[in-house]
Amino acid sequence: MPQLNPSPWFSIMIMSWLTFSLIIQPKMLSFIATNLPINKTPTPTKNNLWAWPWS
């Protein structure tokens, strides 16, 4: 079965992970988020009590 031979596929996997880790990921992480949650004011939550019929 040719799928069990790791020689061509292992090098392709290593090269793709290195490309992602060293080139693409730092470029993606350099973007600044435009909607930071720090700027939002927290809204208080209203807890509704449930009246259980068997209590």
TrEMBL record:
It is a single-pass membrane protein. It comes from the Eukaryota. Its main location: mitochondrion. It holds the Pfam family ATP-synt_8. GO terms for biological process: proton motive force-driven ATP synthesis. GO terms for molecular function: proton transmembrane transporter activity. One of its GO terms (cellular component) is proton-transporting ATP synthase complex. Keywords: ATP synthesis, CF(0), Hydrogen ion transport, Ion transport, Membrane, Mitochondrion, Transmembrane, Transmembrane helix, Transport. It is found in: Mitochondrion membrane. Coiled coil: none annotated. The chain crosses the membrane at residues 6-24. Belongs to the ATPase protein 8 family. This is ATP synthase complex subunit 8. It comes from Coracopsis vasa. The gene is ATP8.
